[in-house]
Amino acid sequence: MGQKTTALKFVILLGFVSLCADATYEGARSITGAYLETLGASGTLVGLIAGFGELVGYGLRITIGYLSDRTHQYWSITTIGYFLNTAVVPLLALAARWEVAAGLMIAERTGKAIRTPPRDALLSHGVSQLGRGFGFGLHEAMDQTGAVMGPLAVAAVLYWQGGYQNGFVILIVPAISGLLLLLILRQLYPNPQDFEEETSVQHQEELPRVFWIYLGAVALVAAGYADFPLIAYHLQKQDIASGLIIPLIYALAMGIDAVAALIFGRLFDRNGISILMLAVLISCLFAPLVFSDNTNFTLAGMIFWGIGMGAQESILKATIAGLVPKCKRASAYGIFGAGYGLSWFLGSTLMGVLYDWSITFLIGFSVLSQLLAIPFLLWVKSQANTTTIND
């Protein structure tokens, strides 16, 4: 069996693990905003909880990334993270207060923080055989397939049985399935590092300057990207969609995300970081549409939201894999994730406050923040040669 075929199987199997995990926590996230509203939380609290969850989930990645590279226990740390990431989700069914639900939501984000840097480092070795944009795009497509399945399952439960609690309980099925597959995958591929050959860029001692410029650009995009719980809160509060329809809208966005990840990942392999700028120009249109009071506009906005998410998830990680030595890659993903998460937290918190004050200002902030990233991305393009990024 050729190295490329073996690597493809590794990426696909790891993609199935992510599919199960996403079905679990994205199924939950499709209703947590509306769930918090029923438990008495305000728009400001929803934005704060969602943003703080992302802050913890991304901020912790600096330590986890460094620990992963220092100990080389990539598989062990990944396994611990996946367990926490998915095991707490069904417990949301027992939450009787918004404070309890908020704590479980933050615990789920903590689990994702633990597993993501080492997982992405492992994945980066496999995708080196396939084309980084395509490889990360394929993984993201599978990831988001789960993100469609989870909300659909929750919507079905809400339809047949009613009550958000039942929606959380059903998610124990993908949670257990993903953990079992992860344990098998760990035995089949104990050393994914062997997929990737050393190149000249692998011997750099420090993270290159362009990495930090790139981080600044993506931080601006993250700050202007509304988390779905706030969107769900808006849909419920304005009576644009019912509790049953909201998960279906989220599933639509996740389906668009999956398709966009494959398309933009392949385009990245051919055209480089210019494709990310195109994705930003498309995604900045989501806020004026999503936060309207028209159902059709909301659906169109969620399509743009999904395109932006898919492009980000494939291109952002693929770019870093081409910039950073593999011995420091988990650390780089951790630092990058922390910067991204801090910006997401600040942006989500501000947008939650702006929602209670002025939706027009919320929309203006979202669009402007994303557009401000374009000059930084142009700077990255001018300083990083195409060979370094895409090799």
Q: Summary?
A:
This protein is mostly helical.
Please explain how this structure is put together.
It is a single chain. The chain is mainly α. The chain has a single domain (8-190, 206-390), classed as Growth Hormone, Chain: A (Up-down Bundle), CATH 1.20.1250.20. 80% of the residues lie in helices and 0% in strands. Helix 2 runs parallel beside helix 5 (98-127), helix 3 packs across helix 5 and helix 9 (209-223) runs antiparallel to helix 16 (359-371).
CATH architecture name? Up-down Bundle
- Uncertain regions: pLDDT < 50 for 5+ in a row? 386-391
> Strand tally, please?
0
> How much of the sequence is in beta strands?
under 5%
Q: Would you state the CATH class?
A: Mainly Alpha
User: What is the CATH topology assignment?
Assistant: Growth Hormone, Chain: A
Mean pLDDT, all residues: 84
Shape: globular
Name the CATH superfamily classification.
Answer: MFS general substrate transporter like domains
Q: SS-based structural class?
A: mainly alpha
First and last CA, distance? 24 Å
From the structure provided, what is the oligomeric state, counting identical versus distinct chains? single chain
SSE arrangement, N to C: HHHHHHHHHHHHHHHHHH
Percent of residues in helical segments? over 70%
Give a quick account of the main beta sheet: strands, pairing sense, barrel closure: none
Gyration radius from CA atoms, angstroms? 20 Å
Number of helical stretches of at least 4 residues: 18
Query: Total domains, how many?
Result: 1
Pfam family, one: MFS_1
InterPro entries: MFS, MFS_dom, MFS_trans_sf, Uncharacterized_MFS-type
Signal peptide: 1-23
Subcellular location: Cell membrane
